[in-house]
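Inverse folding, one chain.
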């Protein structure tokens, strides 16, 4: 099981949910999102450390170092930062 650390907010276990966003929702984090489909960019966060895998095609183009929590799952323990 991978651990997701949200800088300044706390930690959450990833336990096979569809996406990081879903796991963070279940953990009670108030994460930004809108479409949940990789289009809007509202869920973009900075990946501080760790590795993630993309789980769906995304229309929104992230900046270097950013990931979409609605469209990724953690492969290792990860640390992310809200932007
Ligand atoms: S919620 Fe829209 S891109 Fe993730």
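Residues assigned per position:
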């Amino acid at each position: 099981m991978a651990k997701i650390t949200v800088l300044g907010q706390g930690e959450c276990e990833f336990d096979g949910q569809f996406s990081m966003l879903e796991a963070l929702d279940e953990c009670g984090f108030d994460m930004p999102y809108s479409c949940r489909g990789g289009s809007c960019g509202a869920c973009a966060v900075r990946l501080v450390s760790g590795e993630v895998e993309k789980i769906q095609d995304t229309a929104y183009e992230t900046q270097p170092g950013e990931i979409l929590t609605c469209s990724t799952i953690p492969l290792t323990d990860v640390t992310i930062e809200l932007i």
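DSSP finds one helix and seven strands in the chain. Strands lie at 2-6, 10-14, 44-49, 52-54, 66-68, 72-74, 78-82.
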